[in-house]
Amino acid sequence: MGEGVIVINSKNEISIMNERAKEIIGYSADEEIPESYKKMFVLQMWKEISEGSDEVIHKEVKIERPKERDVLMNMVRVKERGIYGGFVVVLRDVTQE
User: Fold this and answer.
1) Side-chain half-sphere CA neighbours of 47 within 13 A
2) How confident is the model over 35-60, as pLDDT tens digits?
3) Predicted TM-score of the model (pTM)
């Protein structure tokens, strides 16, 4: 199975998303993710970061596409020369664990 990895750069764009991450959020490896979904995902990640006091967030979330699943989300802000420039999100489907 493995974990999904998503990297969001300082321009708030998804710069890297592996195939497993696409599967976890409900898309096939060869399916193009709509820009509207990408923007919504980035906004949700910023919301999670701003609500948390830690630089690292560990949280279980529900993803409902295409079916409801429990997903463990680990997110860390990327800091370069003292300035935050984006973040890395690691997703793991824990529905049947």
Assistant:
1) 6
2) 888 888 888 877 776 666 567 888 88
3) 0.82
Query: What is the C-alpha separation between 96 and 92, in angstroms, rounded?
Result: 11
Place of tokens 């919301």: 47
Q: Could you identify the residue written with the tokens 């429990």?
A: 70
Whether 33 and 22 have beta carbons less than 8 Å apart is answered as yes
Closest by CA position to 44, among listed 62, 29, 28: 62
Q: What is the largest CA-CA distance in the chain?
A: 41
Write out the two tokens for 41.
């995902």
Helix (H, G, I), strand (E, B) or coil at 82: coil
